[in-house]
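Why does residue order matter? Because the sequence determines the fold. Keep that principle in mind as you read this record.
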Amino acid sequence: MARVEFCAPAPAETAERPIRIFLNDVPVAVSQGSPYGLAELAVGYLLSEGLIADRESLVHVEADSERSEVRVASGERAETGYVPLHRVTSAGCAQSALLSAARVGEPARLETDAVFDADALLSCMEELCERSPRRNTGECVHGCGLAASGEGGLLLVREDIGRHNAMDKLVGQAWLDRVDVRDKALFITGRISCEMALKAHRAGCPVLVSRKSATDEAARRAAALGVTLVSHCREGALRVLSCPERIAG
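Structure:
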């Protein structure tokens, strides 16, 4: 019989805060998430929403952990008619402007010659689980990793209580570090929703791998966008749901 231990939550465990994101002093969103890695979270969010795209136009990013806010200054401006989305996005299932037909439009399919070995994908997923420090100490967080085709090991790892935030943090850090993701694979420990497939496409990453499941709409949208979607990557097996030509083995 299992032993059940009830513990009162400690103040330092699984912290969650409302995080305010500003672009050129304009409030863009309030994201409910983990109060660390705020700079890359904000940058990744702005990238995935299509509000910034030119790395050379970035002026600076200022994160204030005490106030739980991030201010991004950039030479890029929102398109004419854009209405700031000063709204709360859930740490679990955020609702993004990406799902608006007016914002999605008909984006171009991703094209790449990169091919990823199935065994390497499994190895990287195992590494992601091992390298998520807060996840391994019992916190309720999701991990996100980035790996290159034909190279061993993960290049970056980020975490957050929200899987959307974890991906935004990783994409944001890669962009800040000038890492080209067009021949890379994204790994996430949580479920893949339609929005997450859209985020991978907007980032330019051709492969998105989950340890868990993916929704049918995510698979359908990924196929249309040229994103290879892989689910259930664990215990020596994986499922390829779209664009299988990029997976070998």
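Helices lie at 38-48, 101-104, 118-130, 133-136, 163-176, 194-203, 216-225.
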